[in-house]
Design a protein that fits this description.
13 strands; 7 helices; elongated; alpha+beta; 5-stranded mixed β-sheet
Length: 339
């Protein structure tokens, strides 16, 4: 399999620089434009990811980088499971500084995270709560010698990693918001039905998990029934769980009850399972009635401002973006125990 360049048409760059001692302004500007276009487009999501590990051919690179080229690269994908829980709104075409969630019952919001610190989550109450769009940024730089020496693979990797890190950090903040849910919304590991079911029964754990998921869905519906969401027993619930619980969740959702009236699923609600590596905890999972007052807004996609520093003979790309989110009604989520 031949790996195609993702960021820039480096063959065209090589042709443009043929016979020149150093990079000219026009070629440099075209490279910046190509990088900006690439960075503005989100990477493939986990749900859409394909195996892109592949080596390039020797025709694409000078001999000096062939040892690097022949190595396989694993491109990271940003974990988008949290987007199944939130109503993700696009404010990139607006001039707004944020948005408001009306009739707040109980919820959470987060604020700007200084570099090196953890996300700070705040409780929100009142008839309405503003969610502001905070600015997040970072820098990416490389020596101009990489262009002079046609080390395009190194630039390609740096740009891809920069973009992946941006979206991974955005997801990390969203997951931190979910995991900050108050313990008031915890659902304990429910007892087995029938109560006489022995703990040694091969379906014992799955039966208790089934009862826990059913309890979480019921509690959510009962808590929001007067909030105007139009929620009903037929509503779709998102079951967001750590990948460590994959086999356990699959078993609980796949186990059938058999009785005199026939065979039917143990989980009685319309549940959509969403696995993720974004949750820090691995012994609990979340059941959510998505959207409504679980809201996220993207104000500015990753935008890059380029700069060239002649003193260090290096190019720097400064990436900036704005977004914000909030759980406007914590009643829409339950944290479920597994023991």
């Amino acid at each position: 399999m031949v790996r195609k360049f993702q960021v820039c048409d480096w063959r065209a760059v090589k042709a443009a620089l043929a016979g020149k001692e150093r990079v000219d302004a026009e070629t440099s500007g075209n490279i910046r434009a190509a990088i900006n276009t690439f960075l503005a487009k989100p990477p493939s999501r986990v749900s859409q990811a394909l195996d892109v590990r592949a080596a390039a051919t020797s025709d694409d690179f000078p001999t000096t980088v062939l040892p690097v080229v022949r190595k396989f690269q694993q491109t990271d994908y940003y974990d988008d499971g949290w987007e199944s829980v939130f109503d993700v709104l696009d404010f990139t075409g607006s001039n707004r500084n944020g948005f408001e969630i009306l009739d707040i019952e109980d919820g959470l919001s987060f604020q700007l995270v200084p570099e090196g610190e953890k996300a700070q989550v705040y409780k929100v109450k009142g008839t309405k709560a503003p969610v502001t769009f905070d600015m997040y940024g970072g820098g990416l730089g490389w020596s101009r010698r990489l262009l002079d020496d046609e080390e395009y693979w190194a630039i390609e990797n740096a740009v891809i990693s920069f973009r992946n890190k941006w979206y991974a950090d955005r997801s990390e903040i969203a997951y931190a918001l979910i995991e900050a849910l108050s313990s008031s919304y915890n659902v304990s590991w429910q007892a087995a039905v029938p109560a006489s079911l022995a703990s040694s029964d091969p379906n014992y754990t799955a039966v208790r998990d089934i009862e826990t998921v059913n309890k979480a869905c019921y509690d959510i519906l009962n808590a929001v029934k007067g909030n105007g969401y139009g929620a009903s027993p037929k509503s779709v619930f998102v079951l967001l769980y750590p990948l460590a619980l994959l086999s356990r969740i699959n078993r609980a959702l796949g186990l059938l009850n058999s009785g005199l009236a026939g065979t039917f699923p143990g989980v009685q609600y319309n549940v959509m399972p969403v696995p993720t590596l974004g949750l820090t905890g691995t012994t609990s999972y979340y059941v959510a009635l998505p959207s409504n007052k679980l809201m996220w807004g993207d104000r500015m996609n990753l935008t890059v401002l380029p700069d060239f520093d002649p003193a260090s003979y290096s190019d720097t790309q400064y990436g900036w973006g704005r977004y914000g989110g909030a759980i406007g009604d914590s009643n829409q989520i339950r944290r479920c125990a597994t023991s």
